[in-house]
Amino acid sequence: MSETELAPEAEAPSRVPERPYAIERREADALRRWWQRLTLSAEALKAHTDAPTWPKGMRATLRRCDTGEAAMLTEAFRHLWNLLPTREDQSDRQRDHRLQAWSCISLVVAELREDAPKVPLGARLGQQKRETGKPYMSELRFQQLMTSRTPEELVQRLRRALALIDKRGVSVVHLADNIALWWREYQGGVSPKPTQRLGFIWANDYFGATAGYRQDNQ
Q1: pLDDT digits (tens, 9 = 90+) for 127-168
Q2: Model pTM?
Q3: Percentage helix, strand, coil, to 5, in the chain?
Q4: Which residues contact residue 76 at a Cβ distance below 8 angstroms, ignoring those fewer than 6 apart?
């Protein structure tokens, strides 16, 4: 382990404006701090923390990974895992599931160039493109995203979705929470409340964003 990993960080107090469903606020705060050090320039990072940026190659290595297993072997993911609060009461199986979920989160979140607190992915994909008057992601491709069956399929489709919006304008926390919620449901933990299921959350955000301008065009 390097000195950088061992050194304590001088961070700002926890401020998470989002209300996540599947990750804790402490996890959300750790994730945002990790993303800032991984992505922002040294000058931009000063507004958030006194901690230094990590080498740019660290993010590039993570982005070249195609699977969660590959992500787990990177230095970038090791930093994230060390920042996350520990859960002493977890079984080995629960720890393995958490490790898989966060490795997928790291793969997707590392693609983001800009964090937009409070802006969910579904709403951003449903926003209107000025050039065409249509949403950034078509309804067909959005339906395909919602029906992702495997972790690899989810990561691939989310990366493509982010490319459509220039990898900007989405909340790091919301994005991570969506992936964690997908993993929870993938492992059989579907909420009894329909409004707290990923399909409803994504559809509500997406079609809520498209409703305004589609009505205007009618």
Answers
A1: 999 888 999 999 999 999 999 999 999 999 999 999 999 999
A2: 0.90
A3: 60, 5, 40
A4: 38, 54, 58, 59, 61, 62, 106, 110
